[in-house]
Specification:
single chain, alpha+beta, 4-stranded antiparallel beta sheet
Length: about 90
Amino acid sequence: MFRLWARTFKDNHLLQDTVICDNRSETRTHKVFDALEKVCYAFDLGKPIWLDSNVADFKKHDKTRFFSDNFVEDIDFDYLEIHVIEED
């Protein structure tokens, strides 16, 4: 089971969160990108752009934060955080 937890924050307050589960036999990268797409659909967001700092954080900690410079459109929160909480 693969589970990704996504949360949005503004002024250090949690605005919304969701957990995406995936049981498919895909690669980890496919699961992460598919889960992020589902999160963006659920939160009504455009897909964030992965910067080198996001990739490095995600590789090291299994989580990263997307700030306003990761999005093309304006966002009404400070950042979107994704975190892999379970992985087989």
